[in-house]
Design brief:
Keywords: Nucleotidyltransferase, Phosphoprotein, Transferase
Strand content: 15-25%
GO molecular function, one term: diguanylate cyclase activity
Protein name: diguanylate cyclase
Helix content: 40-55%
Structural class: alpha/beta
Oligomer: single chain
Shape: elongated
CATH topology of the largest domain: Alpha-Beta Plaits
Bound molecules: guanosine-5'-triphosphate
Distance between the termini: 53 Å
CATH class of the largest domain: Alpha Beta
Largest sheet: 6 strands, mixed
InterPro entries: CheY-like_superfamily, Diguanylate_Cyclase, GGDEF_dom, Nucleotide_cyclase, Rev_trsase/Diguanyl_cyclase, Sig_transdc_resp-reg_receiver
Radius of gyration: 25 Å
EC number: 2.7.7.65
CATH superfamily of the largest domain: Reverse transcriptase/Diguanylate cyclase domain
Length: 311
């Protein structure tokens, strides 16, 4: 069974919109707009699963709408079915070349529209599942580095556009090599799973998330969180791991498993390279390790572009 999908129908002809809506509304959630401009505005604020797009419309035509959807990382994977009275092979080929998933000729059969929409939604559902599996770390079952990189990129662009703060945390289990050496690799794996679970459970806002960054390192992306708030959150994560009280008799800084955390925050919408936040968080983490472990070092990327540490 397919879940109710969100389908955007873009057509300047009111009758076509009405017929398409009637054809699909019993199985799906339908949104209707009458121009390419409105379609592009709509997808900025609402996530849709499929777009049925007319080609010949006043203003931006269907081809240009598709080109603009493909240029935007947040809309480029939405499947598009063209529906058009332009039925020459050249028109159809152009639609596919631009990235349309299917092409329906007008006048259309409602049964064929239903079947083709169903096919595209099934393909999308499978693609989404593959995408999700490719974003999950096999051992800890939390988001992996690929997921983190994609999300950080998106949040970084948003923060730059809106001038809002963005914080990144890099966390590393202290003396984990000693843990593996002392208790064995399998116990090390269990420890990673428990730490990952504790970190993920501590995230309460839907927009915050923790990923396994690699090995015994984790990372969190915190949109709209300034340095003070990031420090509070990092302390919560550090406490959550401490509270597990996983014995670590080979540790040189505690009797149980602890983590060190580096924080990087941009608060004033400064323009800097996308990777800077991770690099700064890494410097903070390095400092936290160097100054005793089981601690947090926060760095702010100041308006001058220089960064400062705050222990
Ligand atoms: N069990 C297990 N160990 C892992 C995994 N990934 C990385 N490690 C181990 O994590 C250890 C990391 O060691 P180091 O980078 O020297 O860091 P550390 O011992 O934690 O020391 P500090 O970071 O300085 O506190 C290595 O021994 C890796 O083999 C994993 O998936 N499972």
């Amino acid at each position: 069974m397919l879940k109710k999908a969100k389908i955007l129908i873009v057509d300047d002809d009111p009758l076509n919109r009405l017929v398409l809506e009637k054809t699909l509304a019993s199985d799906h959630e339908i949104f209707l707009v009458e121009s390419g401009e409105k379609a592009l505005t709509f997808v900025k604020s609402t996530e849709v699963d499929l777009i049925i797009l007319d080609i010949v419309m006043p203003g931006i035509d269907g081809y240009d709408v598709l080109i603009q959807l493909k240029e935007n990382p947040s809309t480029q994977t939405i499947p598009v079915i063209f529906i058009s009275a332009n039925t020459s092979h050249d028109d159809e080929a152009k639609g596919f070349e631009l990235g349309a998933m299917d092409y329906i000729a007008k006048p259309f059969s409602t049964a064929i529209v239903r079947a083709r929409v169903r096919n595209q939604l099934l393909i999308k559902q499978k693609n989404d599942l593959l995408e999700m599996l490719a974003s999950i770390d096999g051992l800890t079952e939390i988001p992996n580095r690929r997921y983190l990189d994609e999300n950080l990129s998106r949040e970084w662009r948003r923060s730059r556009r809106a001038g809002t703060p963005l914080s990144v945390l890099l966390m590393d289990i202290d003396h984990f090599k000693r843990y593996n050496d002392c208790y064995g690799h399998r116990a090390g794996d269990d420890c990673l799973k428990r730490v990952a679970h504790a970190l993920v459970t501590a995230c309460e806002r839907g927009s915050d998330f923790v990923a396994r960054y690699g090995g015994e390192e984790f990372a969190a992306v915190l949109p709209n969180i300034n340095q003070q708030e990031a420090l509070v959150f990092a302390n919560k994560l550090r406490s959550a791991v401490n509270a597990l009280k996983i014995p670590h008799k080979a540790s040189l800084n505690a009797e149980h498993i602890t983590i060190s955390i580096g924080i990087a925050t941009t608060e004033f919408g400064q323009v800097y390279a996308e990777h800077t936040l991770l690099e700064e968080a890494d410097l903070g983490l390095y400092e936290a390790k160097d100054t005793g472990r089981d601690r947090i070092v926060a760095r702010v990327i100041a308006a001058s572009g220089k960064s400062e540490s705050l222990l």
